[in-house]
Specification:
The chain is of the alpha+beta class. It has one domain: Nucleoside Triphosphate Pyrophosphohydrolase. The protein is built from two helices and seven strands. The protein has a four-stranded mixed β-sheet with strand order 4-1-6-5, with helices on both faces. Strands 3-2-7 form a three-stranded antiparallel β-sheet.
Length: 152
């Protein structure tokens, strides 16, 4: 059985409806901004903190909207799964005001309706983008229970 780490991630949209992805230094996959919770932090608190640290977007944890929770293959850790809780940041964020910080090497804004590129993380390609395609970006739509895992 693969190792499993817990992470929180955030969908951030531009005024044009593009979805923010980030690539961490020393890696080749793009993913949501986010990361591992600190001891005692809720999933939303971790998402809020990581969003601020990685790309300078400040959204209080209480304002993040749950999109869903999934188990997916980790993009940057071999033989590891992630248990990811994914939120949507309210509003739209101007790409010129979003900058990589901390361990983030590169930002990429993607069209969530386009064919996914091969350098996107499995959480995006296997779970989040298909959900967005089925249900749109309505933040009131809930995702899936992390205790279930789709067959690969």
């Amino acid at each position: 059985m693969p190792a499993r780490i817990t992470v929180s991630a955030v969908c951030v949209y531009s005024p044009e409806g593009r979805l923010l992805t980030v690539r961490k230094r020393g890696t080749d996959r793009f993913m949501h901004p986010g990361g591992k919770p600190e001891p005692g932090e809720s999933a939303a608190e971790a998402a809020s903190r990581e969003l601020s640290e990685e790309v300078g977007i400040d959204v209080p944890a209480k304002d993040l909207v749950l999109l869903g929770a999934w188990i997916a293959l980790a993009a940057n850790e071999a033989a590891t799964d992630i248990e990811a809780t994914v939120f949507t940041a309210p509003g739209e964020h101007n790409p010129s005001e979003v900058h990589p910080a901390a361990e983030i090497e590169e930002l990429r804004w993607i069209d969530p309706d386009a064919e996914p590129s091969e350098d996107l993380a499995p959480l995006l390609t296997d779970h989040v983008l298909p959900l967005l395609a089925r249900q749109g970006r309505d933040p009131s739509t809930q995702g899936h229970d992390p205790s279930t895992r789709a067959a690969s």
